[in-house]
Amino acid sequence: MQHKAGFVNIIGNPNVGKSTLMNALVGERLSIITNKAQTTRHRIFGILNHEDYQIVFSDTPGIIQPAYALQESMMKFVSSAFEDADVFVYLVEPKDHNLKDEKFLIRLQETRTPVLLVINKIDTLDQDALEVENAFWTEKLPNAEVVPISALNKFNTDYLLKRFVELIPVSPAYYDKDAITDKPERFFVSEIVREKILLNYKKEIPYSVEVVVEEFKEEEDIIRIRVNIFVARESQKGIIIGHQGKMLKKVGTEARKDLETFFQKKVFIENFVKVNKDWRSDNSKLKRFGY
Ligand code: GDP
Ligand code: MG
Fold this sequence. Notes:
single chain; alpha/beta; 6-stranded mixed beta sheet; 3-stranded mixed beta sheet; 9 helices; 9 strands; 23% strand; binds guanosine-5'-diphosphate; binds magnesium ion
């Protein structure tokens, strides 16, 4: 077989399971996952390498109507996923027929690139309900092949993979065949800390936080990490730290455990909370944060 390589770009509404699917396909926990919308803020590559092919998956933020500059930037990451796809995965979840932004659907209807309309979370459906979903999406996107899966249970993901390999072109690899992502180690540190913040705080707090890795020093038997957690307002600082520093300590401990699994090494992590006023709406600050 001639070597094949291509970009499979996963897009869809918030919380439908895009990150779960990419992690399942790549077999690594690259993208953080929570039950909250807007967990993913960047476009993240997960690379699947095989002797005969290389698939570069893109996980993207969920489609929303942006309310502030950070979200506008997140939607630019979604748009960029339209520019280089060899295959589109439009991921949906049962009963969510609400299109957050019609223009993305129109682009999918009009594209000449293959589109797989993937219905996720079918572990929550019976056969009749699945038929309803199937009929709805077949009508919406007649050019797409409808594939039902459960990313969580890895049900039918083998079939998806088989289709991707069929659909990507003959091409040399785009990345080293031992690479699993395009992002540096520091990125995963900040994402894991952000995941713990998403899981431990309520309401607006996680959405007002950006995590920056100040120091990442790998020694022979330990990785030393220093992290700044930026909040948008002074009042949020106390909430992050918590009574007698307990909340921040919990976040630090949970993050350390995951980091040790991720890097397969002992980790020492220090977290500092700082105010960076209204960073979410400030374009120059966003730029410095990589958005
Ligand atoms: P994203 O926002 O589209 O990236 O969605 P995530 O991957 O972060 O997943 C959102 C939520 O859906 C998480 O709580 C996942 O555990 C859950 N989820 C993902 N895939 C499945 C699935 O196949 N079945 C069920 N029941 N839940 C799923
Ligand atoms: Mg996600």
